[in-house]
Amino acid sequence: MSLTDYAGIAGLIAAALLALWMLRGVRTQPPTGRHRGNPALRLPKPTRPERAARQ
């Protein structure tokens, strides 16, 4: 076997260990009722300068 074969096997083992570590980390976190993803994008309400000018 060549050096690239050993590097490929080591990469596969490292990827499997990383996947197991990430899955273990997901289970150890306490469950929350709230979704932990990206928050909804809340844009400010558009202002209407024509209304402000009339007042």
Can you give me a brief rundown of this structure?
The chain is mainly α and 55 residues long. It has one domain.
Structure write-up:
By secondary structure, this protein is mainly alpha-helical. It has one domain. The protein has two helices and no strands. The model has no long low-confidence stretch (mean pLDDT 77). Keywords: Membrane, Transmembrane, Transmembrane helix.
Give a count of the beta strands, DSSP E runs of length 2 or more: 0
Tell me, briefly, the overall form: elongated
Structural class: mainly alpha
The structural domain count equals 1
Mean pLDDT equals 77
Biggest beta-sheet profile: none
Helix content: 55-70%
Number of distinct helices: 2
SSE run = HH
What value does the Rg take, in angstroms? 26 Å
Distance between the termini: 83 Å
